[in-house]
Amino acid sequence: MATVTVIGLEVHLQLKTASKIFCGCSTAFGAPPNTQVCPVCLGLPGVLPVLNRQVFLSGVRVSLALGCGIQPRIVFHRKNYFYPDLPKGYQISQYDLPLGMNGFVEIPSGKKIRILRVHMEEDAGKLIHRPEEGSSLVDLNRAGVPLLEIVTEPDLESPEQAHEYLKTLKGILGYLDVSDCDMEKGSLRCDANVSLKEGAAAELGTKVEIKNLNSFRAVARALTYEIQRQGKMLQEGEKVSQETRLWDDAKGITLGMRGKEYAHDYRYFPEPDLVPFAVAADGIEEARASLPELPAQRAERFARQYGLPRPDAVGLTASRSTADYYEVCAGRFPAGKGQAGQKAIANWILGDLAREMNERNLDSIEKLKFGPERLVELVDLIDSGKISGKMAKEVLVESIQSGQAPGAVVQSKGLSQVSDKEAIRAAARAVIQEQPKAVEDFKQGKNPALMFMVGQLMKKMKGAANPGLSQEVLKELLENR
Amino acid sequence: MTLRQIQELYRQKKATPSEIAETFLRHIQQREPKIHAFAWFDAGQVREQAKELEKAGPSGGRPLWGIPVLVKDNICVRGTPTTCASKILSGFRPPYDATVVERLKKAGAILLGMANMDEFAFGSSCEHSCYGPTRNPWDVSRVPGGSSGGSAAAVAARMAPAALGSDTGGSIRQPASFCGVVGLKPTYGRISRYGLIAFASSLDQIGPITRTVEDAALLAQVMAGRDPRDSTCADLPVPDYAQSLQQPIHGLRLGFPKEYVSEGVDPQVRKAIEEALNLFRKLGATVREVSLPHTEYAVPTYYIVATAEASSNLARFDGVRFGHRAKSGSGSQTLQEMYTRSREEGFGPEAKRRITLGTFVLSSGYYDAYYAQALKVRTLIQQDFNRAFEQVDCLVTPTAPTPPFRLGEKLEDPLTMYLSDILTISINLAGVPALSLPCGFTPSGLPVGMQLIAKPFAEELLFRAGQAYQGATDWHQREPKL
Amino acid sequence: MAISPKDVETLARLARIQLSDEELRRFAGQLDEILSYVEKLKAAKTEGIPPTSHVLPLSNVFREDKLQPSLPTDEVLANAPLREGPFFKVPRVIDPTG
User: Fold this and answer.
1) Which residues in chain A have Cβ-Cβ distances shorter than 8 Å to C14?
2) Sheet strands side by side (includes A90-93)
3) pTM
4) Is A84 on the interface with B (CB under 8 A)?
5) B416 and chain C: CB distance < 8 Å anywhere?
């Protein structure tokens, strides 16, 4: 019987509010150590938390965007444990009365991944370990930064699906503009739970939690490794132990953690320093109405409105900035151009622009610094015959690299296609003179000969001749002989 | 001198803040060696504050101008050692003022120093302090009560005209009763807790300890009201308490909960309460019996809820960012060793006991049987009070079941100590306000206190009834022989 | 006997308090007595009674998402038992839990 993989993901999202979740300190990334700390986030005796309204609102919007129901009574709990980056000796989080529950995310391959819960909590500070010196240093700037925790049901079936889910989730969150969603900067963190079971109907196996995942790729790689590891153990009759393992990206393996001295018993109880929260029904509807058009709906509209095939529509709407970019371009086409032009723009974005972004490791289209008006300019240059489609690809790369607009690039490099009929006719006559065999072949109905002569003409004009026009002129001359 | 009297002296320009300060400094010098009410005191700073105030002069917006107030050692005063009478906070100087301290300063008060207390407010006798016990000014072989023992003793001994205390299970009212002074525990959420070093977050309140009801009302007026830094501080307007003091109590409906006599109350205490009730009748109030049927569950409920919250609140004392950190001794110590040794060295036995008990009732496997159950019983207790206040305006009870006991008498058995809180504890669980005021003395001269209880945010009724009583008696004017 | 010295030892570890053997024994006895007393709570009729974790009927208390001044770093570290530059310093953390 085939083993079935069962994966659940827990994502922690840092919200980009101006101030922390329970106090007015800044949440800005990269400040000098312990410069964004006040008595509250320092956990001094006597201080009290007060909830940042924007955190609550963002949490509601995220919950609704993920299809969750907003709970009627929302309560914070204390999660008690000792760690130097946890000033109060407890984290204010949520336990059994979270903000949102029972939503779903649909991933491109069509599967619905159920969202179990969305809740609010505070982030901990940062530790710098110096093992050689036997000490660690504590920086509390990050303590109190607001987090949303998004937990899926164990619905994911493979590392690929997990990767898809994370990209889709990031897309949705990007639309709401509530977080930078940057795994490298730590504003989006992911822990994975994976277990294997014997066949779809079997009981769930022992799950292993994987931490220290710093990119979407790492998530997929770690899951792949861990599935193999567990699979092998089960084959050899070994039992998988329930534990937390750390992903070592350099070595490409998961490592069990050294036996913990103290087991955790978090002793959750309702946070007495914070009151309960609730959102009235009309408040929920208002929040829902204020949501932007989300990726799934936008893809549907793109397919309809711009006549795009569904995969294109989904690809363009995965990220809000790309979708916005597309709509600016598509809107610049006069009514006549219609669907053909809009398909062309889609191709450019999904093809060449995407490639350029990947090569430069950019995660959003603005970072390419090739604005929508430049893409429109490029397409116009092709349509007006000034350059060939092939040339345009080079112009694009040059434009991005140099920062010059496409038109300027064409000018400065003298790349204008020659569309001067007389010049082409002259060259065409020369070709006909020089290639008698080809002319004969053409007369005998062998069309490849025509293309051959077009090639020769292009060579003569150093590739700058408009190919369509060249072909036309040649044919005209040949037929009129 | 009461606050009222000092204010009058200032109004008539018959005294200056420096002169008033000197009076109290003199008393402190004479009496403190015997009473030991202070955890921290600096005469120079007191004099400086008085001089600053004189330079600025009085103003209408500063009702406490030149009034010395003693602050309990668990209320943060910026730059001043605030230690909760615990070794684990030795040397801790907060970089901020508690909200009530800010309001006192803004009102022109002079901070007289920090008052001794039971460590972290864990206690009913002021014997669990790292600075040693405070003594009852009426009989120095006896306790002043706790945990605000220093505050109450200082006011009784005329070392301070007023003091701040905190009350989680009776810690303002019981010492007020033992020391023959007035103590108010306001409604939960009436006065901000920001800056009060927490014991049990859902029970704690700061309140005034004074000689008269009038003075308590004055301090409450200055401190009460919304604080954006405390989510549990109610955004409700503060009535003019001075106004309510004037109103007569004819027709006021008083209730006496029958369960409060059957809890082992000393006959001397019972007698004083009966006489007080008779006086209330003479003043025009009606008295009837009511019932608070879940009173027998109050102490166990309290000790579960309060210790659970305390065990969590005290987790921040870990030696990392402030307070005591154990020295590594020979070689280095691991992180876990640093935690456990710092806390072992820093906490006294009562603190350790409560932390352990609190950890237990929250731990997995026991949460439902103890903590969850206690929260439900708390609802029942609150409902008892709601029902009683449908029938009467104020409840009248003794504050403590006995007169002040001797030092060391209850130290051996913590359970006995906990049981002495029976009359005050339910009030914190229900979140209602209560006022303790002196209502008599035993034949051997020990104070007896009476507790008035009202429904949430009805402090005016307490002040009204208390003022009427003090207008017809002079218990509050007696002075201990020192 | 609801609580043994071994139980107290586990609890003490959870609460990061180090107790001597003598304290373990004394506490176990005292806590046991307290717990026996507290057992009487079980007799209270609480079916259908909601728990009270907040005694005031307050809800939805917020602060606006505005910056407030933080403490100067020196004040943040003023009470630190041990510091190194702008950091708090602690013995090395061995258990790398997230």
Assistant:
1) 262, 265, 267
2) A90-93, A77-80, A269-270
3) 0.90
4) yes
5) no
- Judged by DSSP in three states, B370 sits in helix
pLDDT score, position B210 = 98
CB B203 within 8 A of CB B381: no
ipTM confidence score? 0.96
Cα distances from A111 to residues A141, A154, A166, A204, A311, in angstroms, run 40, 13, 13, 20, 15
Question: What fold is seen in the domain C5-43?
Answer: Histone, subunit A (1.10.20)
pLDDT tens figures, B402-447: 999 999 988 777 776 777 788 999 999 999 999 999 999 999 999 9
| Cβ-based burial of A451 (10 A; exposed 0-12, middle 13-18, buried ≥19) | middle
Find all residues with CB under 8 Å of C36, minimum gap 6, and list them. Answer: C2
Q: Quickly tell me which residue has 């965007």 as its tokens.
A: A65
d(CA A449, CA A454): 9
Nearest CA in chain C to B306: C53
* Maximum Cα–Cα distance across chain A: 101
Q: Quote the distance between the C-alpha of residue B405 and its chain's center.
A: 18
pLDDT tens per residue across span A201-222: 788 888 899 999 989 999 999 9
Residue that is written with structure tokens 């991005």 in the block:
A400
Checking if the pLDDT of A261 tops 50, the result is no
Q: Which residues of B touch C81 (CB under 8 A)?
A: 319-320, 322-325
Q: Does any CB of chain B come closer than 8 Å to the CB of residue A354?
A: no
CATH number of A421-479: 1.10.10.410
Q: Are A271 and A277 in contact (CB under 8 A)?
A: no
Per-residue pLDDT of chain C (98 residues; tens, 9 = 90+): 567 888 888 899 999 998 888 888 888 888 888 788 778 888 999 999 999 989 988 999 999 999 999 999 999 999 999 999 999 999 987 754 43
Contact (CB<8Å) C40/B340: no
Q: Residue B194 pLDDT more than 90?
A: yes
pLDDT at res. B411: 76
Helix ranges (DSSP H) in B314-372: 335-346, 349-362
Q: Is the dihedral of CA B64, B65, B69, B71 positive or negative?
A: positive
Q: Does A17 touch chain C (CB under 8 A)?
A: yes
Structure tokens at A461: 């004009």
CB contact under 8 A, C90 and B320: yes
What average pLDDT score do residues A243-255 get?
91
Q: Where exactly does CATH 1.10.10.410 map onto chain A?
A: 421-479
The arrangement of secondary structure in B3-257+390-477, i.e. its CATH architecture, is: Alpha-Beta Complex (3.90)
Residue B290 clears pLDDT 50, i.e. is over it: yes
